[in-house]
Write a structure and sequence with these properties.
This protein is an alpha/beta fold and 236 residues long. The chain has helices at 12-21, 37-47, 64-78, 101-129, 150-170, 205-216; strands at residues 2-7, 28-34, 54-58, 83-86, 132-137, 175-182, 226-229. The protein has one domain: 3-Layer(aba) Sandwich (Rossmann fold). α1 (12-21) crosses α6, α3 packs parallel to α4 (101-129) and α4 (101-129) packs parallel to α5. The model has no long low-confidence stretch (mean pLDDT 95).
Length: 236
Amino acid sequence: MRVVMITGGSSGIGKALAARLTTEPERYAVVICGRSRERLEQAIADLEPDARVFQAVQADVTQSADVARLVSSVLQKFGQIDVLVNSAGAGHLGAFAETDEATIERLWAVNVKGAMLVTQAVLPTMTERKSGHIVNLCGVLGVKTIANAALYCATKHALVGFGNALAQEVRRYNIRVSNVCCSGVDTPFWEGIPGKPRAEMLLRAEDVAEEIAHLLEQPAHVAMGMVLMQHVAHQL
């Protein structure tokens, strides 16, 4: 059985992935974390998981103390972390000249610093066991660019660069790193963000979850470094 820890697991793609993996309790133990206790409680109610192979931890990935507590809690219950899915993310669209400093700091903290802190925290157990898989949710704007998304593109390009470089650093420990770059997904991510594409042009969270599940099922010798997913009607 593999232990899969999903940040941002209380909503969106993270929650959809948790729903997908909890259908196979004999193969996966699933851990979700999120900042909102209320959303975590709702996710637990929706997922109806087997508590023996499931854990939900309230944690802010931008805070090192929270991250340390999260990883310690998972190791205490399951003894290992085989897969980390960095799904926590924040979005912003708008003219860069009008973007305030607080928004800049928030996106860098969540999209880049958060993923780095959690990855750094799980690497010791993965390197010790000489096995592991890290999956970063980078979005298509990690490899493409559009107007009015300079800040968001910058954070996601940074995450892609981080994942690519880390893959070279940790491959000697048989740790794989995959960057999943998908076009717009119909999730709560769009709350408060103007310019949401029409629903029929958006991927479903379940589409991305299924692709991540496919990544996790690859043989140990296969490294899927980059996955690009786009809706057929919404390609960049």
